[in-house]
Design a protein that fits this description.
The complex is a heterodimer of chains A (about 300) and B (about 475).
Chain A (H helix, E strand, L loop, with lengths): L6 H4 L7 E2 H31 L2 E2 L7 E2 L3 H9 L1 H33 L5 H9 L6 H11 L6 H8 L14 H10 L3 H12 L3 H9 L4 H29 L3 H7 L10 H11 L3 H29 L5
Antiparallel strand pairs in A: 2-3
Chain B lengths: L4 E2 L1 H21 L8 E9 L2 E8 L8 E7 L6 H16 L3 E7 L2 H13 L6 E3 L2 H9 L7 H6 L22 E7 L2 E5 H7 L10 H11 L1 E3 L2 E4 L8 H11 L17 H16 L6 H9 L13 E2 L6 H6 L10 E5 L11 E10 L6 H11 L2 H10 L4 E3 L2 H4 L18 H7 L3 E2 L7 H16 L5 H17 L2
Parallel strand pairs in B: 4-5, 4-6, 13-15
Antiparallel strand pairs in B: 2-3, 6-13, 7-13, 7-14, 8-11, 8-12, 9-10
The chains are: A mainly alpha (about 300), B alpha+beta (about 475).
Chain lengths: ~300, ~475
């Protein structure tokens, strides 16, 4: 049948001129394209240029070469603190969030009663406004009369200072991050439902139990989905801002001075736009390197059926 | 599917026409009310040359719009006063319309900078020393010396803060002040503990001893703290340094001096109350109290004394005291410095400024002149509350108006103390890296307020952190 279609109808003739169809295409995507160029591409490269300047918003940027980067790496201990805080959070929040989301997805994928209700309930917090969630958790984790410490007190455990403790502030924020795993749960649910049933049947014939099926069928088949959520989770954890800004504002003693919060302060509190741009580019490179490393390592554990 | 083609030449022609239209459209700008300039007067005074443009009213008799920015929430009584003052000004000057634009502290400074950078700055900006130097250095602030001279404005009637007078010239007009540090105490708590009320000759040791006696416990739980000392910098520990004869930065503003023994002693005094005598909540305890929704620990009766308490006279005037009768507030001066016997309190003025790019400088000047006048100052003082203070000296001694006008239901409140404290007022020594510098020091001082470092260790670490900011490019 394919042979009966004239070849020029399938492969449109290339001419030196522009086809009206092309022009119309460009015209229709031009709003997005212009927006992308003006608010995406131009600021992207502008910030690279600004990172080599002293720019305080008012007045013109002054070229200072690598001095922003020199200050950042060699003269600014708080840059290293913010990086350490962000990495610490990322290491705790991402794996734990993925495991919790995966377990919840398994639970919600099982033939339980009121499954739709539970799916809605677990997803609901992830669409709640970040600031509202932050305030809610601030109340729950109040060291003196918060619900969490009150419950711990009932079983004889003296709860920590949470957001007011240098040691517990990050774990408290990790705890909060679990509240928003609903989005990942939905992705996992979609992934679980795409796992071919015949693989489970074959495993059962081979005598596999529930754990064996999970380990040898579900996890391998879900590995591309897990990989995707892991990459996005790591990137997201490096962009942690709202909660820290609202609840702790970087304290106590810089224990929650996240990288983006530190960048924000330089950009919009101190108006050191040049220095903030340098911080942004360093973050970009860090995230890029981590993502590339994840991609490289993914070949060892991610299974693509095709 | 059709595939009509257009030649490259045609495409480029059409493209050029469209681009030309775009450029022309951009040049055309937006329609504007035509203003006819009828006179340009040059006022020459000494070496200063100012171009004074007098413009005829527009054909449509539209009043000139003056945008006034500040960071006071719209629901504050003080913001309502501003609206009344603006309304009165517009009655007197029907050719000028004042538009007060309110935003939160952080948003306000972003707006100021971004709008100025975009050529759309607010005509009048309420100013903080934390940002003044930067804006002034960039030429964003209009010099007011010629206006002050032309209209014979007497600045000597006002409390002045040196940071706002770079090069010895006038850049700001007086409006409000914060500070004059006092001890606010609950008379009921003192009565209950059988302790005599504090007096102006109290020492730092008397103050601490009273805090210990006023702290009430039920088992392990503190039900009333003797003292509340904020762990933040500007409204907390920083203020105690100068009270003890120390300072946080050298005169040239190039070196942090928190490691000065006088500073360490002041920090030690705070630290001891939190961790040795346990009569003042530490950072964790303060955070827990505030996070639990206690907006004002003093007025809730949880605290017997506070060194930086906002008395909120505006609320006392409009709403009175909390009905539970727990709190009967009174104020007294903080003790003089142990090193030198002087009283030093930190204050801060917030004047008004005009954006140098404003198209309506004369109208903006008229407005800020009105704000600095007796009528506007009186309206402000009768409504606002300590630590907001008037910078207009004549009103500060007038017991018919302002602070000294008794507050119904709180007649015992010694308002004269608030005015007296202004005699010991000193500025905060703002500099161009203020915010970054304070944040860096605060992070180190937090270790002390958490009890993880001694006062001396924290002061030394904060000195290093502060200097790193000062020395950064």
């Amino acid at each position: 049948m394919g042979a009966s279609i004239p070849s020029q109808a399938v492969h449109m003739r290339r001419t030196r001129g522009f086809r009206l169809q092309d022009i119309e295409g460009w015209f229709f995507i031009s709003p997005w394209l212009l927006g992308f160029l003006l608010f995406g591409v131009v600021p992207f490269f502008a910030s690279l240029y600004l990172s080599f300047t002293k720019y305080e918003l008012l007045g013109m940027p002054q070229w200072i070469g690598l001095r922003n980067y020199e200050r950042l790496f060699f003269k600014d201990p708080r840059f290293w603190i913010s990086l350490k805080v962000t990495l610490y959070y990322s290491v705790l929040a991402v794996p734990s969030g993925l495991v919790i989301a995966f377990v919840l997805a398994l639970f919600l994928n099982a033939p339980i009663r009121a499954r739709a209700f539970f799916r809605t309930m677990f997803y609901l917090p992830s669409v709640t406004a970040g600031v509202a969630t932050a305030y809610l958790w601030a109340y729950l984790l109040n060291p003196k009369n918060g619900l969490v410490n009150t419950l711990l007190g009932l079983i004889g455990i003296e709860g920590p200072g949470w957001f007011f403790s240098r040691q517990w502030a990050i774990p408290a924020l990790v705890l909060m991050s679990w509240w928003g795993v609903g989005g990942t749960v939905v992705i996992y649910l979609a992934g679980l439902q795409a796992v071919p049933q015949h693989l489970y049947e074959a495993a059962e014939i081979d005598g596999a139990g529930a754990l064996a099926k999970l380990w040898h069928v579900t996890i391998p088949m879900m590995s591309p989905t897990i990989f995707f959520t892991m990459v996005m989770g790591v990137i997201g954890s490096f962009q942690m801002f709202t909660t820290a800004y609202v609840v702790t504002n970087g304290g106590p003693a810089d224990a929650t001075l996240f990288y983006i919060l530190y960048l924000f302060r330089h950009a919009f509190q101190n108006f050191n736009m040049g220095y903030a741009s340098a911080l942004a580019w360093v973050l970009f490179v860090i995230v890029l390197v981590i993502t590339l490393a994840q991609l490289k390592l993914s070949g060892r554990w991610v299974y693509y059926e095709s | 599917m059709y595939t009509r083609t257009v030649s490259r030449r045609k495409f480029l022609m059409v493209g050029s026409v469209l681009a030309g239209m775009g450029v022309l459209g951009a040049c055309a700008g937006t329609p504007q009310v035509v203003q006819q300039t009828v006179e340009v007067e040059k006022v020459v005074k000494e070496t200063v040359v100012v171009e004074k443009q007098v413009t005829a009213p527009p054909a449509a008799k539209e009043p000139v719009l003056i945008r006034h920015g500040w960071w006071i929430p719209g629901d504050w009584e003080w913001a309502k006063v501003m609206d009344r003052v603006a309304k009165r000004f517009m009655e007197l000057n029907p050719d000028i319309k004042v538009q007060v634009e309110s935003s939160g502290w952080a948003d306000y400074w972003q707006r100021v900078q971004v709008q100025i950078a975009g050529g759309e700055g607010m005509d009048v900006m309420w100013m903080s020393g934390a940002y003044f130097v930067n804006l002034w250095e960039k030429g964003a602030i209009l010099e007011l010396t010629p206006y002050v001279q032309r209209d014979n404005f007497d600045y000597e009637l006002y409390i002045k803060q040196e940071e706002f007078f770079p090069e010895g010239k006038v850049w700001t007009m007086p409006y409000t002040g914060w500070g004059g540090q006092l001890i606010t105490f609950n008379m009921n708590a003192f009565d209950e503990a059988g302790i005599p009320y504090p007096t102006n000759d109290w020492t730092w040791d008397d103050w601490r001893d009273a805090a210990v006696k006023l702290t009430k416990r039920e088992g392990d739980k503190v039900v009333q703290w003797g003292q509340w000392i904020q762990t933040g910098a500007e409204y907390g520990w920083l203020r105690y340094l100068r009270c003890n004869g120390g300072n946080w930065i050298n005169q040239e503003k190039t070196k942090t001096t928190l490691d000065d023994p006088k500073c360490i002693e002041a920090i030690q005094w705070i630290y001891d109350q939190m961790f040795t005598y346990k009569c003042a909540p530490n950072a964790t305890e303060q955070g827990a109290i505030q996070q639990a929704g206690v907006i004002d620990p003093f007025y809730s009766g949880m605290v017997a004394m506070a060194g930086e308490q906002e008395l909120r006279l505006d609320l006392l005037r409009t709403e009175g005291l909390p009905p539970d009768g727990k709190v009967k507030p009174q104020v007294v001066l903080m003790p003089p410095s142990r090193k030198g016997g002087k009283r030093w309190y930190n204050g801060n003025t917030n004047p008004t400024t005009i954006w140098s790019g404003s198209k309506h400088k004369e109208e903006a000047w008229k407005w800020i002149l009105h704000l600095a006048g007796r009528e506007a100052m009186q309206a402000l003082m009768e409504t606002a509350g300590y630590p907001l203070t008037s910078v207009y000296k004549p009103l500060n001694e007038d017991d018919k108006v302002g602070f000294l006008k008794p507050i119904p239901g709180v007649e015992w409140l010694n308002l004269r103390t608030i005015v007296e404290a202004l005699n010991y007022w000193t500025g905060l020594d703002f500099h161009r890296k203020w915010m970054d510098w304070v944040n860096a020091m605060q992070a180190e001082m937090d270790y002390a307020w958490l009890g993880e470092r001694t006062a001396e260790e924290a002061c030394k670490a904060a000195t290093i952190a502060g200097d790193q900011v000062l020395q950064a490019g």
